[in-house]
Amino acid sequence: MDQLAQAATFIVLYGVSYGLVLFVISIGLVLTLGLMRIANLAHGVFAVLGGYLAFKLPAAFGLGFVGSALLAVALVVVVSVVLERIFFRFLFGMTELEQVLATIGMCFAFIGLLTFAFGPNVLATKYPDWLAGNVNLLGRPFPVYRVFVMIAGLLILVGLWVLFDRTDFGATLRACVDNQSMAKASGINVDWYFSVTFAIGAGLAALGGIVGAGMLPLEPLYPFKHLPLFLTIVALSGFGNIKASVVVSLVVGVVDTAGRYLVPQLGAFTVFTLLVVLVLWRPHGLLTRWK
């Protein structure tokens, strides 16, 4: 019985921390695909770019972890604004297939750039000493790093809830999504709201790539390697359903962790089996009524 309780504790703690990282990275794709109707399969580029910058900037400029992370997120936001203006804006109105092909092409371009700049191998990452060690949580040792990930994920979750549910920006953005033509007729700059939302999603992806590098290692193939997980969360959340994406991310994190812990020989088979079953059961999203 003690072994069962220890296994359950391990799965829940590690699964929740993993799920929160997936949420922080995927929420931008939920917004882009659900709210802006752009099938951006290059979303993982922002995550891996943020990670590479955060762990390379300290050596170049002597910054600490927090400073380099903030600077990396800011740089990725700038890059995303530029790309939105010169690339993604032209995807509006295109067919889903054209959007998929264009963003996959962007993935290949960034993979080539990262490979040329840093090599093809996994990037060696080192978190600061204050994230090392363990704490006693629910009767078992738990890495301080994962506690930090959980706290950061919860703070971001609260921040997004306030932004989208308790501010004029969130209300106006929902109006733009529900009826773009009416919003434009009311004098709302719809393009500006979508640009800001895209930048927020890219910045969160960069932050997720930084804090989640201990779980999702950084490498040039990162945008393709982890894309199925990000798309799983989008598919099970439904179009633009931010609240549902939180629950779905935690479910995916716990199920994936449980599968790898209990049946390690199956690897990621467990979570993708869950995806197939749930998509067949609820093709429009797992929690479509929870908006």
What does it look like?
This protein is mostly helical. It has a domain of 186 residues. Helices cover 71% and strands 3% of the residues. Strands 1-2 form a two-stranded antiparallel sheet. The longest helix has 33 residues. The radius of gyration is 19 Å and the shape is globular. The model has no long low-confidence stretch (mean pLDDT 85).
Oligomer: single chain
**SS content category:** mainly alpha
Unreliably modeled segments: none
In total, the number of strands is 2
| Global morphology | globular
The rounded Rg comes to 19 Å
Continuous helix count: 12
Key features?
291 residues, 2 strands, single chain, 12 helices, mainly alpha, two-stranded antiparallel sheet
Write the layout of secondary structure elements.
Elements: H1 2-34, H2 43-61, H3 65-86, H4 96-118, E1 134-137, E2 140-143, H5 144-165, H6 168-178, H7 180-185, H8 190-211, H9 222-225, H10 227-237, H11 242-262, H12 269-281
Antiparallel strand pairs: 1-2
Helix pairs in contact: 1-5, 1-8, 1-10, 1-11, 2-3, 2-8, 3-8, 10-11, 11-12
